[in-house]
Structures are given as structure tokens and as C-alpha cells.
Amino acid sequence: MTERFRADLAIIADLIPEGSRVLDLGCGNGDLLRLLSEKGCTGTGVDVDPSNVLACLRHGVNVIDLDLDTQLGEFGDDSYDFVVLSRTLQTVYKPRRVLSEMGRIAVHSLVSMPNFAHWRNRLRLLRGRMPMSKDLPFEWYDTPNLHHSSIPDLEPLFASLDMVIDRRIPLDADGHRHRAGNIGANLLASSVLFMLHAARP
């Protein structure tokens, strides 16, 4: 039986060239780095959840237990080709600092995040309830999400850090490319994936 990975992780893996050095921040159980190893990529995962660290080790994935908000200085300038932050930006305390460090560590970054302005989330708010969906599966009192953003909110943040958007890929609730593409993405996309590069002097 073929092992199944999250659909959005397969999209990320397709965007990263063979043989790249990859740093996966908030790597979870290491699935992305396992996918990338099939392309000859080498990489390191970072996670603070002990169960995720253990899962990575069981799968033979290199993993480090570091705090994304305070310890990314452990990585040298341009020490990787790509940095990935998948569905994690909304959980860190200082998103701007984390993104800035990503641009220092590698020229290229891939960042994905739930779209809090998705139409189902808006509808739930109109009904007087906090949003819940496949991308936001937590009750308000039990959520790891500290920051809520729409797609247009993210783009000025990237620009302020000299991170240039190369591709914007809206995703549906199952993590596949949304059929409507970028048409009405802020209303229709459940989450979004950005491919970025850091402008260098």
C-alpha cells in the first residue's frame, strides 16, 4: 500500500529542485523532508513538539528542537537553498522576525497559511461563531493560531521584508490547487502557498 502524504506537501515538494538543501520550520512528523529525499534533497526539520520530533527520528529525518521565535540565529546566512514554513506562520509569536530570518538563511522560501477570509469562515462569523474548518480545526479556546490573516494581508508583509513573490498558489480545503486559481482567491481559497525569494543587495 502506497503511503499518502498531505496534498499541499506534494505541491511544495514539486516546487523544490532536485538536490536542494532544505530547512523545514515547523516540520511536523517530517513528511515533507521524506518526500524531498526521494528527489535527492538533503534537509533539516525544526519542531518543538516532542511527539513530532520523535516521529521524525523514527522516520530517519534530521530534526532539531528549536524555538522559531528566538533560536533561528543558530543557522548561518545562506546555509540552505530553501526554507519552508508550512501552515506554521500563524502560530509563531513574531511572524515578521521569523520571515526575516528565513530570508537570511536562504534566498528562496515557501510559506503557506490558512486563509481566515475564506467564505466559510466569513459565514460562520456572520452567524456569531468563531471559524472552524479543515484548515482551522480547533475550538477557539484550544487553537495554536495566534495571528489571523487574509491573503491580501500577507503580501505587504512580504514586501516590507524585501521578499519578492514568485508564485501565489491558492489551495482548496483538501490542500489541492484551487480550480479557480487566483480568481477570487481571498474569498474562495481555504489556504494559500507563496513561493518567495529574498532580494539581495
From TrEMBL:
Check the UniProt entry and state the signal peptide residues, or none. none
Give the top-rank taxon of the lineage listed in the UniProt record for this protein: Bacteria
Q: What's the protein name?
A: Methionine biosynthesis protein MetW
Extract the InterPro entries matched here. Methionine_synth_MetW, SAM-dependent_MTases_sf
Q: Which SUPFAM superfamilies match?
A: S-adenosyl-L-methionine-dependent methyltransferases (SSF53335)
